[in-house]
Amino acid sequence: MSTSTFLRLFVSLVVISSLLLSSCSGPQYAPPPPPASASAYTKRSAESLQDRPGLGTQAGHEYVSEIQPSRLIRKSSVPDAVDSFHYNDAAGAETMAGILGGSKTKHDGLFAVAGDRLKVGLVSYGDPYPHLEAAGRRIVIGQAGDDYRVRLENRSKKRIEVIVTIDGLNSLTSTKAGYSQRGYILEPKQTYDVLGFRNGGSKVRTFRFGRVADSVAAAKGGAGNVGVIGLAVFEEDEAKAKAALQHEQFVRENASAFPGSR
């Protein structure tokens, strides 16, 4: 047998062996498809968003509502209490309560949160929406098309600051919520209604129950946070507040009525 003939036979045996090993090594898998383009992914996400049932919070009509600036010295950069509750239409609220399990009860009126520091609720024309309670969670039952407000009732004897978030957005700034931001300051026993989304100024857009796809959160890329309202409560550092007040009085004591005559 010539050398060239031997080499050809050797190569053929190697190829046949490789094919046999491949067929015996287990199931074969097709290579994964190429990744979808960004535009295709965005289109699918948008279509999915359009199909989401239940309520989100849209921005309703705009009007001017002045708020008075105030000052509160926090005891800590960490909230003294953090709490949240959910909202949805009747079908969504019932479904969520069923998933949570246990007994389910329906209530009217406000409810206590944040270690009983606050009573809260969603109201329309002064009347609170009903809510379900299940497994320690509260789910407010809203109505599509309604404008609503978040009612805060300070039950404590202290001044507190409350960051109110709607679908993960700070209601004062309409930006992604965080503890370092500012909130609404409530005097002891004060009740206050948060009217809508602000942009840091005097203009406010009412909170309005609507489709998830039309929510403010969805427009800002935060549709995954739709359906939850958050509350971060900061108590005032009374000692520092008193010291600051005394310092101010010392400054005023030395104020001059005619500084140009000195």
Keyword list:
alpha+beta; about 260 residues; about 35% strand; eight-stranded antiparallel sheet; 16 strands; about 25% helix; eight-stranded mixed sheet; 5 helices
Please, could you describe this protein's structure?
With 262 residues, the chain is α+β, with helices and mostly antiparallel strands. The protein is 25% helix and 33% strand. The protein has five helices and 16 strands. It has helices at 3-24, 38-50, 90-100, 216-219, 238-253; strands at residues 55-64, 81-88, 104-107, 111-113, 118-124, 127-128, 131-134, 137-141, 147-154, 160-166, 169-170, 184-186, 191-194, 196-198, 203-211, 228-235. The strands form two sheets. Strands 1, 4, 5, 6, 9, 13, 14 and 15 form an eight-stranded antiparallel sheet that branches. Strands 2, 3, 7, 8, 10, 11, 12 and 16 form an eight-stranded mixed sheet that branches. 26% of the residues are buried. The model is unreliable at 3-11, 13-33 and 35-43 (pLDDT under 50).
Give the overall pLDDT as a whole number. Answer: 86
Oligomer: single chain
Report the portion of residues in β strands. 25-35%
Low-pLDDT windows of residues:
3-11, 13-33, 35-43
Terminal CA distance reads 123 Å
Number of helices: 5
Please tell me how large the radius of gyration is: 30 Å
Query: Helicity, in percent?
Result: 25-40%
Described by the principal axes of the CA atoms, the overall outline is elongated
Order of helices and strands: HHEEHEEEEEEEEEEEEEHEH
For the largest beta-sheet, the strand count, sense and barrel status come to: 8 strands, antiparallel
* Structural class by sheet pairing and helices: alpha+beta
Q: How many individual β-strands? A: 16
